[in-house]
């Protein structure tokens, strides 16, 4: 699984991106019960996850990991929150059918690319009280994905 952080964790220290969820995967019980490769890359402060250059770097990183480890290419997932959710939508749109599943928390994507993102299994979350990324953005892309056939259930957005 590739996890893309929000803008607040950007930088080059290779540590800030681990502050929100990274420690969870260090627990022996998690690693034993859920064997997986979980990667927390860090986006430089001068870029965004959805920048072409960064997306190419992410694709290269995934390719390198697949070549060096026994990763099941049928089970690659991606997810992120805020800027990372925007990057998640962009990566799935740029790589139709590559990601088995995706999770987007408080983000948005290109509604016109919904058909190319429909092969991926989605979970989309949004908070009605989010003052940074309005939940209407997640609702709009979820509707576009639904119309493109991405969901088998009528209410893909979970709001808190």
List keywords for this structure.
alpha/beta; 5 strands; five-stranded parallel β-sheet; 5 helices; about 160 residues; about 15% strand
How would you describe this structure to a colleague?
By secondary structure, the protein is α/β, with parallel strands linked by helices. It has five helices and five strands; from the N terminus they run βααβαβαβαβ. It has helices at residues 28-33, 52-68, 83-94, 114-117, 135-147, and strands at 2-4, 77-81, 101-105, 121-126, 157-159. Strands 1-2-3-4-5 form a five-stranded parallel β-sheet, with helices on one face. Strand 2 (77-81), helix 3 and strand 3 (101-105) form a beta-alpha-beta unit. The protein is globular. 32% of the residues are buried.
- Placed side by side, the strands forming the largest sheet appear as 1-2-3-4-5
Radius of gyration over alpha carbons? 15 Å
Output the number of helix runs. Answer: 5
Secondary-structure element string: EHHEHEHEHE
Major beta-sheet overview: 5 strands, parallel
Share of residues in strands: 5-15%
Structural class: alpha/beta
| Overall pLDDT level | 91
Distance between the termini: 24 Å
Uncertain residue segments: none
């Amino acid at each position: 699984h590739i996890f893309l952080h929000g803008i607040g964790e950007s930088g080059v220290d290779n540590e800030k991106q681990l502050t929100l969820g990274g420690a969870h995967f260090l627990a022996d019980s998690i690693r034993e019960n859920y064997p997986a490769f979980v990667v927390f890359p860090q986006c430089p402060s001068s870029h965004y996850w959805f920048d072409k250059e960064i997306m190419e770097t992410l694709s290269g990183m995934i390719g390198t990991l697949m070549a060096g480890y026994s990763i099941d290419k049928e089970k690659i997932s991606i997810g992120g929150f805020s800027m990372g959710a925007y990057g998640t939508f962009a990566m799935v749109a740029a790589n139709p059918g590559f990601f088995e599943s995706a999770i987007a928390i408080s983000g948005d994507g290109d509604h016109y690319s919904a058909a190319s993102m429909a092969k991926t299994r989605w979970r989309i979350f949004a908070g009605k009280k989010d003052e940074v990324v309005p939940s209407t953005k997640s609702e709009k892309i979820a509707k576009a994905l639904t119309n493109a056939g991405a969901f088998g259930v009528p209410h893909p957005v979970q709001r808190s």
